[in-house]
């Protein structure tokens, strides 16, 4: 017979995987007697897991809604972090089903307060295309800020914030989007009715928040909008390049996460892209393998001149 601790974990896993179990079903799966199952159910209750039961020959056991957080021993921020991680995994090929099951199990045993927070994050979150080649350090985002934004989306409550520590903004939040390993909240400006993605790590929420609002459907494809607008406004450095190749060729060479491409006459195109530094942008556009001209910014032109001199010096005098 299995040790009690191992058997309890297996019993808990079975009850999380299916809604209802009869005593004989559980006994058969665990290889124990019905009496042992009843004793193990009592031990789970002592540990803080709520287990509902109906008596009789056709009685069933069911894992109830979590009444308190232990014995998971997760605080609020840890629970949010686990949910965010599982939500991300469900968007990775090969992990959609298992990640979804794990997230459902976690939500099932949490108290109502945390379960509502996690549900808000799940329902308010989307994932865009990912550039797996990026080596830029990820910005830190306070889980409490994500939770607050998700709750505002759920409750149709406006946000008031400082953006980039200076600009005051008021947003009717629509959706949280994870893109390029960063978090954005897509929202509508109630004064101008314009939509924009806001980097969450650049937001400092103000209290009290904004007023309640009636939600408005987003006019278009959300992922396409975020990719386009972040390429235009969401980087520390933005670049506009004229590429000596048709748009189709440029699109075939880039990850959709790095920017947008516009067709020009005579077989050329415009690439709007960006990065967290001039160095990152310079390296990336050099890897395109296509001739280009920088329209902006001028600082990128200066940086490329420095690189050109450095590379020229590296090959000077070579055979």
TrEMBL record:
Swiss-Prot/TrEMBL keywords: DNA-binding, Transcription, Transcription regulation
Database matches in InterPro entries: CBASS_pafABC_assoc_protein, HTH_11, Tscrpt_reg_HTH_DeoR_CS, WCX_dom, WH-like_DNA-bd_sf, WH_DNA-bd_sf, WYL_dom
Pfam families, per the entry: HTH_11, WCX, WYL
Record-annotated WCX domain positions: 236-311
WYL domain span: 145-203
Ranges for domain Helix-turn-helix type: 12-61
Molecular function, one GO term: DNA-binding transcription factor activity
Name of the protein in its database record: WYL domain-containing protein
Lineage: Bacteria, Bacillati, Actinomycetota, Actinomycetes, Propionibacteriales
